[in-house]
Every structure is written in structure tokens, then in C-alpha cells.
Amino acid sequence: MDRESFIHLTKPATVGAITTSPLQVVVCAQALFAILDHSLRRSPDQERVIGTLLGVRSEDGSEIEIRNCFAVGHNESQEQVEVDMDYHKQMYNLHLKANPKEVLVGWYATSPELNTFSALIQNFYASNGDGTYPYPAVHLTVSSNPGKDITCRTYISSSVGVTPDRAADSCLFVPVPYEIKYAETERNALESLSMGRASLERQVNNIVDIHSLEVGIDELLDLLNRVSFYVSQVVSDDALPSVAIGQTLLNSLSLAPKIEASELEKLFNTHLQDVLLVSYLANTIRTQIDLSNKLASATGITLPAQSQKTDHKRQRERD
Amino acid sequence: MASEISTIKSVRVDALVAMRIVKHATGAYPTTVYGSLLGMEVDGVLQITNAFPFPTSTDDDSSSSALTPKNKGVMWYENEMIKCLREVNVDANNVGWYQSSTLGNFINSNFIENQAHYQSKINERTIALVYDSMRGAQGGMALKAYRLTPQFVVAYKENKFTSDNLQKHGLTYKDILQELPLTLYNSHLATSLLHQLSIPQPAPAVLPVSISSLTNPPTYPQLSQPLSTNFNALDLTIDPVLEKSCDLLLEAIDGHNTEANNAAYYQRSLAREQTKISNWQQKRKAENAVRVAQKLAPLPEDDWQKIFKLPQEPSRLDALLISRQVEQYARQVDGLTATSSAKLFALNGGIPRF
């Protein structure tokens, strides 16, 4: 995604002002999917849709993790903007019931534009009472124009304006850095999802274990090819050599165990036999259960000793 | 519209739903979590387009075990949520529910009750999605769609799981649940996002100067890491998972034995009562023969129904469920050993011999 530099200037703290201290925003992939889904479901006449971001704030407030979000209905015209605040409150309460740890952290919009209405909404979300005060409210924009890259931006705001009147409907959006994060299991899920990204139907069928194994091996082969290509380039003086890379490669290579061929054969065979035995027993159990049920329905008697035999065998094998 | 025979042939799960379920299940692991599914059915394909988790506790009900879709508080929550979601153009039809599981340990009376509740009360065309948190951590997407078969629903409504009844419906443990083919679906925008997430980072302009700079790249400023394949699937130590599966399998077999013993006990006591009855009948017959000889009115011969009570046949439902559960585990173990042995062979071929 886009790589930009951010500069943070910590202003001297003024009484009552919202803090604009350095802030790190982490966006969970799940929230992005929800925002994109909302963007797809907007009415044709709506330029953008907005919603509330929920997440977790670190204790000192310097890191915000956006974990979830929900859509909030709003109406925008040339002159005015109308956000369904009752709806927001109701939804927020419902979400809190299911997930008390995720609190209000800000709001999102599905257009990269920042305008006067953005400032108004931002001021509501950052306000005292219903908003995130004393913490800053995060504003996340996700562009969803067809044919263009999906770009995200995160902002916090600081108040500007000479009179209190003007300050209420204007604010200064300060861009802050963000990171898209996925937990280990989420990553596995995303991986499965992205298997379908190149297909025309945008679907993934028949998710089986052996598939992910195949993908993993392919990826590994790719990486090995890349490394060996680099090494051969270095050898033929086409690429710049690096001591660090060489050392790392050497370290990895030395991880391969030094083992007698006969010893390895033995280990391999015993382990393989174990695995095959377990597989065989699993299938036997399945057959026995089938048999037991067939007999039970045929005679009305369930045979108690049916699976006992495999049970014992299994125990022995495991010991 | 409300035809008795379901027309769902397959299930299509949106990326959003998959991600929500994964997040919810992982966040609460190892607790089992439940949630609701929204979507609609189009030409036999059930499209699930949104999902939300059920609350972890409700105000009006303090019993902890009752937080399943049948709970009153949960039902209220579900309705409120759907009402709200309707306002923002979400497909506001309840099409089922999801739950998390560990290594496929979900087939129990609770699951059946919930799904029966959905299939009878809300809509015939509802499904249950089961996400396996432990398998999910191993790699891949361990999401499965199930529904109760029509035969089972009929039998469940009668609530009589005796041997005769089962035979009448032709119901075996294999006919309880029906697994539906499941596809994952990405919207155009989601596809775009996935493509963008997996763009590899450009090679650094300067080569690393030391090993530590390679292994611990500077953490700040943090950039979004590209989505790359993780190699969990290549992990050779699947033994813990296999062992856990075997343990669960053994447990299920024990359960099966208990059920079988119950059934056998019932058979024995039934046989005992039956001998008593036939003894009594013979005695009565002999008595009557004497009475007829003495020209007295014979005593009724079917009085035994008042004197003896035949034992009630225990419900076979638990036995059926346990059988199904054993089968589930056995299949799972089989699947695990398949990938495991493939990896073993790969390893054997790859290690240099000295």
C-alpha cells in the first residue's frame, strides 16, 4: 500500500483541547471488509457512506486498534448533513453487549474527501459525552472508486477557529500513520479468500487442507528460486554481494540436521508407520461404528463390546 | 413459497462473514461462541452476506449455559440487531447461525436443538456454519455448512427415537446432518483489496549491513505488511493436533459404549419382564382351564398389562449423535494423517544423506 512519511509536532498542551500527541493506528482487516461491504450497499445517489469505528485503545492512548465497525445512515445535501444519531447510539449499545471491550474510537467515510461536513461529524465523534473525549477521535477514509486503488487514510483532528461558533463546525485534520494488521488465524482465512482473487467468479470452492499445503510448497519453491537466482547473480558479478545475506543463508543451511542415512530411514519408517496405523485404526473405527449401528437397527440391540477392541489397540499404540 | 422441501443446494459465504466469524471465534477461544447469519437465497444458493455475534451475557437471564440461539434474550438481541441493520441496506433475513468448535466437537444435542429451532421456527431454509478454531490456526479455512436432513426433522418433531421409529423413517446416524458445499465469495472491492494487500514490498535500496538488521528490521515507521503465505501448513509437528483428535475420538467411543450399555440394560430388563409376563400368562391359562373344568367364568387373560409394566425404551438420539460424532472424528483423523504422511515423504526426500 501507500508509503508515506508522517511528521508529528506535539503542541503545548492547552486546557480543554483535544490531545494531538503522536498516535499509532492499527486497522484490522475485518473492519476494512465491513467498510467495503457498506460502500457496496449505499444508495445510488449517495456519494459516500459513513459509520462508527469500534476498537481498543492502549492504556496511554497512544495506540488505537480498529477492530470493528458498523454503518450509520446519513443524508448529505448541498447545505446540510444529517446523521442518524439515535441509530448510532442504539447500535453502539447493541455492539457493546456482544463485545464490551470494543469501544468507540472514531468514524469512517468511504470517500477520500474531507469537507465541512466531515469536520462537523468529526467534532461530534470527538465531543465530550457521546464522543471519544478526552481521547482523539480517529477518522478513517477508505476510497472505493471503481478501477482505482483502495486507499486508506487515517486522521485525528485538532480544533481551529477564532470564535467558539466557528470552532464548532471546523477542525484541522492531522494525518496519522496506520498499519493494517492481521492475526495469525485471520491471515490463514485471508489466504484462503485470496485464492479466489484471480478467478473470474471471485469464488473459492472446495477448501481442503491439502490445498493450503500445496500453496505453501509452491510459495516455498518460489522463495528458494529467488534466493538461488540472487546467489548465482552474485557469483557471476551481476548483483551486489552482501555479507549479511550470505551469513544468514549459511546459518539457515546449517540448520539442516546432520544425520546418518540409516538412522534417518529408521526414524522415517517408524513415524510413517505410526501415522498409517492411526489412519488405519480411524477407518476401522468408522467401519465398526457403521456395523454397530446397522446391527442395532436390524436387531434392536446395540452391541456394547463393538468398539472396545479397537479402543484397546489404540491405547496400546499411543503408549 | 413455504415449500416443505428445501431448495438450498449450496452456500456462498462473503469474505466479510468469513472474517467476522474467524475474528469472533479466535477472540474468544477456547470458549464456544455463537452468532447470527444474514443473507438471502437466490436460485438454490444461500448467499450469506452479513453476520453478527451474540452477546456474551444478557441482562434478563443469568444462567450461563443458555447463551445459545434459543435463549429469549438472545432472540431479542437478534431481532433488534436485524431491525437496525435493515436501515443500512443489509440483507436483513435471518438465514441461520454460526458457532465455533475445537477439532469438530460440535455434534451434540445442543447443536441439534439449535438447528431444529431455526429450521422449524424461523425458516426452513436456514443453515448452521461451524468454524473450527483449532484447524483454522493450522492453515486454511475450516468453515463448514450443515443443516438437518428432512427425515431427521420429521423424526425430531415426533420426538420419539425408538428403534421402531428409526426403522420406520429409515434414519441412521449418517442421516442426521447434511453438509452443504461451501464457497467463499469476494465482492469486487474485496478482490481489489486482496490484490493490494498481497503486493510484495519493494526490495530495499540499500543492502543490509549486518545480520541483526536482517532478522530484526527497524520497527518504526511501521508499514503495512503485505499479505503473504504463511508456512503453518508446512509445519511438521502435527502430532499435538493428531493426538488431541485421537483423545476426542476415544472419549466419543467411551460415550458410545455407555449408550450401548444403556441399550443392553434396557434389552435385558425387557427380556426379564417378558419372561415374567409369559409365566404369568401360562399360569392364568392353567387357572382358566381349571375354572372351565369347574364351569366357572374364565378370568380375563390380558390383565398382565395392569400388573406388569414394560420398561420404557431409552431415546436412541444420543446414541445416534455419538455415532455421528465418532464418524466425524475418524474422518478428521484420516484427513490429518493424509497431509501428515505427504509431508513426511517430502521431508524424507529432501534431507541430504551423509
Automatic annotation (TrEMBL), chain A:
* Coiled coil start-end: none
Principal location listed in the UniProt entry = cytoplasm
Q: Which SMART domains has this protein been placed in? A: JAB_MPN
The MPN domain covers 25-161
Q: Which controlled-vocabulary keywords does the entry list?
A: Cytoplasm, Initiation factor, Protein biosynthesis
Ubl conjugation is among the record's keywords: no
Q: Which domain of life is it from?
A: Eukaryota
Q: Which Pfam families match?
A: JAB (PF01398), MitMem_reg (PF13012)
Q: Which InterPro entries match?
A: eIF3f (IPR027531), EIF3F/CSN6-like_C (IPR024969), JAMM/MPN+_dom (IPR000555), MPN (IPR037518)
Q: Where in the cell is it found?
A: Cytoplasm
One GO term of the biological process aspect? formation of cytoplasmic translation initiation complex
GO terms (molecular function) for this protein are: metallopeptidase activity; translation initiation factor activity; translation initiation factor binding
A GO cellular component annotation in the UniProt record: eukaryotic 43S preinitiation complex
Query: Which family does the similarity line name?
Result: Belongs to the eIF-3 subunit F family.
Spell out the subunit comment: Component of the eukaryotic translation initiation factor 3 (eIF-3) complex.
- List the protein's name: Eukaryotic translation initiation factor 3 subunit F
- State the organism named in the record: Dactylellina haptotyla (strain CBS 200.50)
Automatic annotation (TrEMBL), chain B:
Origin superkingdom = Eukaryota
List, alphabetically, the CDD domains matched. MPN_eIF3h
Query: Chief localization class?
Result: cytoplasm
Q: Record's PROSITE patterns?
A: MPN
Which terms under GO biological process does the entry name? formation of cytoplasmic translation initiation complex
Where in the cell is the protein located? Answer: Cytoplasm
Record domain MPN: where: 11-152
Keyword Amino-acid biosynthesis assigned to the entry: answer is no
The record, for Pfam families, names:
eIF3h_C (PF19445), JAB (PF01398)
Functionally, this protein is described as follows: Component of the eukaryotic translation initiation factor 3 (eIF-3) complex, which is involved in protein synthesis of a specialized repertoire of mRNAs and, together with other initiation factors, stimulates binding of mRNA and methionyl-tRNAi to the 40S ribosome. The eIF-3 complex specifically targets and initiates translation of a subset of mRNAs involved in cell proliferation.
List the protein's name. Answer: Eukaryotic translation initiation factor 3 subunit H
Q: What is the lineage of its organism?
A: Eukaryota, Fungi, Dikarya, Ascomycota, Pezizomycotina
